[in-house]
Amino acid sequence: MSVQEVPPPKFPASAPLTSRAPTEVIDRSCRWPVMVLVVLAAGWMLTAGLLSVLAAIKLHAPGMLAPHAWLTYGRLQPAAWNALVFGFASLAGLAAALWMTARLSGAPLRGGGFIVLGALVWHAGLKIGLLGILAGDATGFEGLELPPYASPLLLVGYLLMAPWALLTFARRAEPEAYVAQWHVLTALWVFPWVFAAAHLATTFLPLRGVLQAAAQAWYLQNLQLLWLGYLGLAALFYLAPKITGVAVPSRSLALFGFWVLTLFGSQAGMARYAGGPFPAWMTSVAAAAGALTLFGVGAVVLNGVGFARAVVGGWRESVVLRFAALAAGVFVLTGTLSALNALLGVREWTQFTLVTPGLDLLWIQGVAGLALLGALYYLVPRVMGLAWPRPGLARGHFYLAAAAVGVLGVAFLVGGWVHGAALREANLSFLGVIKRYLPFASTGTLAQLLWLLGAGLFALNLLGMLVQGFRRSAAPVWRAWRMPQPAEVKP
Amino acid sequence: MKHGPLLFLGVLSAVLASWLTAVVVPHFQIGNEVPILIEELGINYPLDRAGEAKQGAEIYRALGCNYCHTRQVRQAPLLADLTVTDLGPNAPAARAVVAALRRDLAGVDGSRLPEVLPQPLLKHVSYAAAEAARRRLTNAGARVELTFANLGADIARGWGPRRTVARDYLRDHPVLLGQVRFGPDLANLGVRETNAMRLYLKLYNARIEMPGSTMPRYPFLFEERRLRPGEAPSPEALRGFGFEPPAGVEIVAKPEARQLVAYLLSLKADALFYETFLPQPPAAAAPTSTNAAAAAPPPP
Asked: Within an 8 Å CB–CB cutoff, is residue A190 touching chain B?
């Protein structure tokens, strides 16, 4: 474990330091807002894991818990997805984004109380929304299920939190922004109106007919790439130089990759409905844009190669580095496969198969999830000013999470091809199709179980640290209270 | 990057551009579609659903049926095969047309055209090309047969006579196209399944009729009523298709189940209009079972 040592930042110094606040001051300013977000994210990770395991089991054991309407697969699945995306990934991403912004700007985080309030509003909104989904109030659109009485709460919570990152950024010590900061700011900027526009277009002021589904596909793409993906990439671009001490090899290359992914990545959403009831040009545009995102992925690869040697060297000591390196690997794989999957010829095979949920989960759990877990393992000790109580649990979490993502990726991507081939065999009865894809789909249970166990280890470790932190701040109070008052001392 | 505003404007325009291509431009193209009058049938397609089916759509959404069932039939751009069955009375003229169509066989001057023509003459060509060739050959007196080469597995399975188009979903809100086929496509469930009892049993326990199915049971949509001794079960109680309720008990659909089944029976995307026009719809064997493929053995 190397979470204690803080190597000096080795970014290319572009401007002379003007008035960087001391690191301790920055970390102290982050303590309450960031830790509230981290604790909520850890709780949601457990909830999401539990719901995902249940949903995954129900896929191959449909009779289990069948008499309970609120536990049917069509409700558990969206509940698990929303808990994972808006509970775990988004809150962990916000925590990392706020802390990284403060650290990279060299300015204390502003608006602590508002951020805590916003986190609680978001949390309450998500809780209400999840109960609504389980009660049958989901909107029905995959990824946009939060009922109309819950989604505005999330937006309110978000608007209480995110602007403080911008206001902190505005007081940065150096005019030049770091690579990680572009990604953070883009993610923070894109999320609210993608979220609002998609909910408006599907639920509040619904568009006519299939345009609702088009808005949904657009939203899912931007949510996965420009929100969760960019939060993950920001964490990678922050952690890799910090831990290895190697600067990002090429800033211009990073800039190129950033704009390619932003410009073309956001266009590739309609590949989700290739061959669907839409004008054909829509999916063709998405396919072309998807193919072009390969250049963005390539730019990340070229920059990442510069870290390869340092990663090999630091693999043993730093669990954060392991999370980051694995997340980077999964990003390259998932980014490439998503680009290929947008091509119409490939889509004919992978449409309606396990590949679709497989790639979605790889983006959320593999790219954003792993990178943000690395960021949490890195930032929590600094923000709390304490070491992780059980470094072994962190290593265990890494292996469990890596195994979960590996199993998930292999099972759903390979299973997706088998599923697709079975669907194309017109003479195969649907029961035959089920028999072909079911072994792969059931493997999802194993993946989610591993992920849940890892989440449990993280929660335990975090709990230990919170207890330590509580002891540290409560001990003087306790001692003062226990000490006999001078008046009571009998002569 | 010293220019924060540049970053914001750049990202704003990138995402705005994607909103334009994904939603705004398509809105101008198909956003003003209205139900279309089909004169032969005297209906405005898509038909508005009856009240019970509309309530059923809410049940469909609330139970999340779309997480396992898509509601879209796919079909690649139409390709056709062209077969010459008979060269007709004016064989030299017909062979001249064939030579023009198949330069690869005939050579530049048509001298290498084989005596026995390949069957089919044109394979997997666009429908327009096949149709043009058919006209030329027919005008030359030959008899030809034009068949579709790639209707696709969805149509071959009997999931619909044609691909689904935007107009099919005009009456739906929310439009639940679905993304994964853990279960069969439902775009035309109401066409291939007309027996409500079968759907009730499927919802009650899909494994009664189809062991090995992974569809969840929905027992909460049904009511178990105890029968008084000698009392006959009500006519709408579940039975048949291999299902026998336990003695002294009848199982009756709750209103939610009735609404859901009414909705499922209303799922039809089979009307033909100009967007979906298939030149000569080949007579596809109508499958009898709901889920089984066309070639599945009939239930015993």
From this structure: yes
Any alpha helices (H) in B107-238, and if so which ranges? 127-139, 152-156, 189-192, 196-204
Q: How far is A432 from chain B (nearest CA, A)?
A: 9
Helix, strand and coil content of chain B, in percent to the nearest 5, comes to 35, 15, 50
Please compute, for residue A46, the number of CA atoms within 13 A of its CA located in the half-sphere on the CB side. 11
Give the full edge-to-edge strand order of the sheet including B143-148.
B122-126, B79-86, B143-148
A272 to chain B nearest CA, in Å?
8
Give the single-character DSSP code of A419.
H
Contacts of B65 in chain A (CB under 8 A): 74
Helix, strand, coil percent content, chain A, rounded in steps of 5: 80, 0, 20
B26 is written with which tokens?
A: 């398509």
- Give the C-alpha separation, A132 to A83, whole Å: 13
AA identity, residue B255: P
**CA-closest candidate to residue A291, choices A227, A340, A242:** A340
A212 to B173: CB separation less than 8 angstroms, yes or no: yes
The pTM score is: 0.90
Q: CB–CB of A169 and B219 under 8 A?
A: no
Query: What are residue B251's DSSP bridge partners?
Result: B224
Contact by Cβ (8 Å): B146, B280? yes
Coil, helix or strand at residue A486: helix
- Which of B10, B23, B157 faces A211 most closely, judged by CB atoms? B23
Q: Which of A34, A88, A60, A74 is nearest to A455 (CA)?
A: A88
Q: One digit per residue, pLDDT tens: chain A, 491 residues?
A: 444 444 555 444 444 445 889 999 999 999 999 999 999 999 999 999 999 999 999 998 988 888 999 999 999 999 999 999 999 999 999 999 999 999 999 999 999 899 999 999 999 999 999 999 999 999 999 999 999 999 999 999 999 999 999 999 998 888 888 999 999 999 999 999 899 999 999 999 999 999 999 999 999 999 999 999 999 999 999 999 999 999 999 999 999 999 999 999 999 999 999 888 999 899 999 999 999 999 999 999 999 999 988 888 888 889 999 999 999 999 999 999 999 999 988 998 999 999 999 999 999 999 999 999 999 999 999 999 999 999 999 999 999 999 999 999 999 999 999 999 999 998 999 999 999 999 999 999 999 999 999 999 999 999 999 999 999 988 888 888 888 776 665 55
Q: What tokens does A473 get?
A: 């701040």
Beta-carbon neighbour count of residue A333 at 10 Å? Answer: 17
The CA–CA distances, whole Å, from A479 to A14, A369, B290 equal 49, 41, 75
Which chain B residues are Cβ-neighbours of A194 within 8 angstroms? 15
DSSP A190-210: HHHHHHHHHHIIIIISPPSTT
How far, in Å, CA of A3 to CA of B282, rounded?
68
- What separation in angstroms does the CA of A491 have from each of A480, A484, A486, A487, B169? 21, 13, 10, 10, 91
